[in-house]
Design a protein that fits this description.
This protein is of the alpha/beta class. The chain has helices at residues 4-16, 71-81, 92-104, 117-132, 157-161, 172-176, 186-196, 219-232, 252-256, 282-285, 304-320, 323-343, 369-373, 377-388, 410-429; strands spanning 38-42, 45-48, 53-56, 110-114, 136-140, 178-181, 200-205, 208-209, 215-216, 235-239, 262-265, 276-280, 349-353, 356-360, 392-393, 402-403. Residues 23, 25-26, 61, 116-118, 121, 144-146, 157-158, 206, 210-211, 239, 241-242, 266, 276, 400 line the site of ligand KE4.
Length: 432
Amino acid sequence: MNHTESHRIFTRAKELMPGGVNSPARAFGAVGGEPIVFDRGEGAYLFDVDGNRYIDYVGSWGPMILGHRHPDVVSALEDALARGTSFGAPTEAENELTAMIVEAVPSVEKVRLVNSGTEATMSAIRLARGYTGRDAIVKFAGNYHGHVDSLLVAAGSAAATLGVPNSPGVTAGTARDTIVLPYNDPGALEDAFDKQGDKIAAVIVEPVAGNMGCVKADASFRSALRSLTEKHGALLIFDEVMSGFRVAYGGAQAVFGMKPDLTTLGKVIGGGLPVGAYGGRADIMDHVLPAGKVFQAGTLSGNPLATAAGIATLKVLRDTNPYKRLEQLSTRLAVGLEEAAKRAGIAVSVGWFQAMMTLFFTGGPVTDWDAASRCDTGVYGRYFWGLLDRGVYMPCSQFEALFLSTAHTEVDIEATVRAAEEVFGELGKTSV
Ligand code: KE4
């Protein structure tokens, strides 16, 4: 594939931005080579600046559940644009988007809109500390919650790829209040609460993790999360920035029949524009300024363009309920990739949950970060590039999830599995 223009633009980008990117997750650090520079998206496809077309399984890391340029989202944005872009004052669209979130997400009674998932988790952590008067936060190895200082401790996602669990600039004092435990390990969580339960303000968890690859919290872990936080007066925060409105209209908590105390959201609720949110029990949320004393603010929070795109996206999801079809497509892809790899003698296991999935290059099941970190990331890199050269754009790291959209078709899935078959054939021939 010709990447001449991509290379020219990216060479200039590196003179202007650190590593030539505005987020390390898109830097191709884990797979080598240079990122592709894209020009436009349409439905399930991306087109790069050299005119190459790709079936897109990144979907902007989750937001594009309706595919690129869904007509309802485009026209909602055009309508909003005709009235202005930002007022820094209340608009009715904020009522509409937050009402849809309250109606959809079982545990959410009140919501605060922000501009990113990071802002959502940072604010939820601050609120939990303000509400409980406690300092300690529990998170899990392999979970990533955005670049919040107190959560950049053994994070997953890009931090894990970069092999920098504790980022420079995160102070010892900050990290001291963060307890990092293994995911899917109820015993470790119980032990932490036994030892310092009265200090723990909150436990934050990805109920369906996407940032070590796709790994689901199993039933015993989910039960311990809820019972131990209740027993010790700590808040349970579900970070559903990735799983919210993606695995079900009500998120993972709706599928699991759980009610966390706070939920963080992002990605899908902005429909491709910058929106994050945190919400939960009204008696907790009413501690947020100006209703309460926990400070949090934002110039562009609830921005008219972003809320318009989010409302349009959630309306399509609510009114068409595409989740069964997304799960069927995702199952076809998972089974197709796994069978093709095994036919070529390549050890893989698939982690998937509704419309998010990861093909792990390892033999055994992946249930936590330790298992995920044993994957063969070198083979993943060759798989990634083999597919890219065949017009299939997968996440540029073993420790990410791929995302399907309502724009993907069975034809796209079959084409992807055929391309993977060729790649696995090549990989199977060389020493893997
Ligand atoms: P943002 O600040 O990137 O909007 O959201 C942070 C965040 C919080 N919680 C979860 C569960 C997340 O997955 C994320 C962000 N996800 C990564 C992809 N794994 C975003 C990609 C990037 O950082 O460029």
